[in-house]
Amino acid sequence: SYSIYLIHYVVLLLVVRLSAPLSPDNPIDLLIGVARMVASLVAIGLIALALQAWFEAPCRRWLRGLAAPGTGMPGLAILLAAMPVALALMIAALRPVLVAALAARG
C-alpha cells in the first residue's frame, strides 16, 4: 500500500543508523540480523496500518466528500489533490537554485 511505501525507508534508515555493525562470520550476529529484519518488517506493517486507518482513509473520505455531486466544492477537491504534484514540480524546478545556494554556503 501507499502507507508502506511512505514509511519503509524511514524505518529501515533508523534501523541501519541505530544498529551496531554485525560480523558475517559470527552465527549470533546472523541471528541478530534476521531478528532486526523481522522487527523492521513488523514495525513497517504496524506503522503503515496506523497511517492507513488514522490518516489515509479519513483524508480520502473527506476529499471524496468534497468532490461529490451537489456539494458545490469539486474545484477545492481538485486543488487539494493537485497540491503535492505542484509542490514536486516546484522543487524540481528550483533544485538547481537550491543546490547552488547550499554549495555557496560551504
Word description of this protein:
The protein is an all-alpha fold and about 110 residues long. The protein is about 85% helix and about 0% strand. It is built from three helices and no strands. It has helices at about 1-20, 25-65, 75-105. Helix 1 runs antiparallel to helix 2 and helix 2 (about 25-65) packs across helix 3. It is flat. The two termini are about 40 Å apart. The mean pLDDT is about 85.
Provide a short characterization of the protein structure.
This protein is mainly α.
Overall pLDDT: 85
- Tell me, what's the shape? flat
Query: Helix and strand string, N-terminal first?
Result: HHH
Label the structural class: mainly alpha
* Proportion of residues in β-strands: under 5%
- This entry's quaternary arrangement is single chain
Number of extended strands: 0
Low-confidence stretches: none
Helix coverage percent: over 70%
Terminal CA distance: 40 Å
Radius of gyration equals: 21 Å
Number of distinct helices: 3
Task: Give the key terms.
mainly alpha; 0% strand; 106 residues; 3 helices; single chain
Q: How do the helices and strands line up, and which of them pair or pack?
A:
Layout: H1 2-18, H2 27-67, H3 74-105
Helix pairs in contact: 1-2, 2-3
